[in-house]
Task: inverse folding
């Protein structure tokens, strides 16, 4: 016999998250069960996306203006948050928030865009070095100079460093929006 809907239970092992969850609930002034019910209700009530494709603008001419009014404290907080998140203006930040909610896609701030541009520049340099090494291997075969192997090791280190930078960037973006 299954439990009545109002008596249904959900049991979750939180492990080390339990004290953090309890503290979160205490600060919000609700018990842990009620907070979980609210989170689940909010998630289930969230509008489902009509399409799984991200919504994108074709060009800048298709934009529409949205005007919102915020209280002084709300505006100040939102403005500070937009700067912290790396957006040049509150308008760009608000647009990114709306776009993220619609598409669930990444919305990068200017510092993140700059980091990715730098990353592509570094990858291009690594690619040029690999092309030179490949050319030398084809030309000289086993007689390739020993210092060229050091270049390969340096490139491996550079690629690993680059991958870590991109991982941190993506994690920061994911943490921002989720």
Result:
């Amino acid at each position: 016999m299954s439990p009545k809907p109002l008596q249904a239970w959900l049991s979750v092992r939180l492990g080390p998250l339990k004290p953090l969850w309890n503290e979160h609930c205490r600060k919000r002034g609700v018990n842990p069960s009620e907070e979980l019910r609210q989170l689940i209700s909010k998630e289930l009530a969230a509008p489902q996306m009509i399409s799984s494709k991200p919504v994108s603008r074709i060009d800048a001419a298709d934009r529409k203006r949205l005007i919102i009014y915020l209280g002084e404290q709300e505006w100040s907080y939102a403005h500070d948050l937009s700067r912290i998140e790396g957006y040049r203006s509150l308008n760009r930040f608000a647009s990114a928030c709306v776009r993220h909610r619609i598409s669930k896609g990444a919305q990068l701030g200017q510092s993140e865009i700059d980091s990715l541009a730098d990353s592509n520049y570094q990858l291009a340099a690594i690619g040029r070095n690999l092309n030179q090494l490949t050319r030398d291997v084809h030309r000289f075969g086993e007689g390739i100079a020993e210092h060229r192997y050091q270049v390969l090791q340096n490139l491996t280190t550079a690629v690993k460093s680059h991958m870590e930078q991109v991982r941190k960037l993506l994690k920061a973006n994911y943490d921002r929006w989720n």
